[in-house]
Each structure stands twice: as C-alpha cells, then as structure tokens.
Amino acid sequence: xxxxxxxxxxxxxxxxxxxxxxxxxxxxxxxxxxxxxxxxxxxxxxxxxxxxxxxxxxxxxxxxxxxxxxxxxxxxxxxxxxxxxxxxxxxxxxxxxxxxxxxxxxxxxxxxxxxxxxxxxxxxxxxxxxxxxxxxxxxxxxxxxxxxxxxxxxxxxxxxxxxxxxxxxxxxxxxxxxxxxxxxxxxxxxxxxxxxxxxxxxxxxxxxxxxxxxxxxxxxxxxxxxxxxxxxxxxxxxxxxxxxxxxxxxxxxxxxxxxxxxxxxxxxxxxxxxxxxxxxxxxxxxxxxxxxxxxxxxxxxxxxxxxxxxxxxxxxxxxxxxxxxxxxxxxxxxxxxxxxxxxxxxxxxx
Length: 350
Fold this sequence. Notes:
This protein is mostly helical. It contains 18 helices and no strands.
C-alpha cells in the first residue's frame, strides 16, 4: 500500500528516530545484564535520553503507523465507510506475514539448537505456546502472565498491539465510517490509554505491553489522518505544529526526570504527550512535504526499513555482544558496541 504513494521524508525520519531508540535500548539492556558498569561518571539525564527511550520509540512508531494506514485507506477507497475488509486484511497480511514467518522459523531452529539467548525458558512456556502467541498476536499477554521471552521473541509484543488494532479497524470503519462515531471510538482509545498504562496495569509487563496502552498512539495517528483529509492548513499553522510537536518529542525523550517530577509518568500522560507531539510533526510533514536534510539521511533510511530492522536487529545486537564479551568486556569498547550495532543493522538491511 505504501509504495503507491510518495514517501514523506519527515515521517520516515520519525520512524528512524523510533527504531534508533529501540536499538539503543536493547544494546543497553544487554550491557546491564552482563554487568558492564559503563554508566559510571555519565550524567543520568544523558543516559536516560540515549538508552532508556525504547518504549517511547515504539510509541512514536504506533502514531506514525496509525496515520499511514488511515491516510492510505482514504487514498485507496475514498471513504473509510467503503473500506473493503477482505482487501485490507490481504494487504496487511502481505506486508507483515512473510518476514514474520521467516523470523519465527529461524527462532524455532535456534531454540531447538539450544543457542544461548534464543531458547524459550521451559519454566515459563514452551516453543509451541510461544509460536501460537506470535501467530495470534498475544505475545504481550503471554509475557504478562509468564514472564519475558528471549529478546527476539519479546519484540513481537508491539506487533501484537498493532495487529489486534488493525484487525478491528476495517470493521469499525465499515460500521462507523460515515458518521462521527468512528472519531468518538478513536478518541475513546486516546482517553483510555493513560489509564491502561497506570491503574489498569496489573504488573510491570502489562504496564508497558498492554493493548490499550499502545492503541492510544495508533488512534491519534488515525485521527490526524482524518483531520488532514481534504483539509489544507496555513503555512503559519504548519510551522506552529512542527515547532510544538518537536518540543513535545524532545521534552519526553530528553527530560524524563523532569517529566517524572511533574507526575506525567505516574499518570501515563508522558506517552500521550509524546504521541500528540509526534502527530503534530506528522501533520506538518504531510502538508509541507519538504525533503529531509543530508544530516538526517541515515535516520530517514532506517525509517524506510523500520519493520525489517525492528524484527531483525536483535540478531545483530546479540552477535556483537558475543564479540564484546569474548574481548573481555572492555569499557572502552562500549561506544564501539553501540555504534557498531547501528552500523551493522544498516549494512545488513542493505
């Protein structure tokens, strides 16, 4: 579906930012699990901004995804009430299934071969149960009840949230697309999101991985596409949206301690602010339509391949981790580990 429309550089950059922070977070987790004290002497705000924003990166991606799916549906069918459910599912399957099935086949082989960091812990679940959860998009539910799966399985929690939303999206469009009820339904997801991340979260895993805790960002992306449909904003309005949106993203990503002190994290509103800011930048990018600068080229490239990079980057992170450990876990090699992970992910996708 996406190939039928022109690429929007600003939106590709947003997706690149999202996958960058996911990648940095996963490298950070591997280092901490191997007791590498690389954070000593580094300011906490800087560490937080660089390596603890993986969840926020997924939130950005959710907002972009909702916008793209809705705008492409409007472009394809003209009106959401005319969405062809069968075609929607077929196109979604064609986009998601090939790489997902290949990934699951590789993960199953690595599990059966007993490769470290790829074996599903039998005390938590079985390979068959993990495969069922991945194929029916409830890895997040399984992990909330049984505990975390190996990292290459764990990343599928976000796909579970996204695909469950998109299973119901064309049906909701068909039934509610002609009136304001669809907007009301999407707005309902936005309202419930912060509660799902706080009072409705029965443990720490569900706080981060719940369906409703991520669907608010997807719904905001959908609402942004609906708002922009057949509507042209003034250049001044677009500049304001771009500025406010960028500031909102920078605030949540770069000033987590301030956000925590303000109570935004405790109420779940930090993720809402991030999604709203992302949608502001999306709106400006969609209508300004300018190309990304050369400096942002690598992020744009990552964004154009975000799904492929997301599903495969853990292989690179773990492979480089093994090299790092074999070298004696030198602290001087930590920056190289971070940098090499990003570089090898890019080269591998080429």
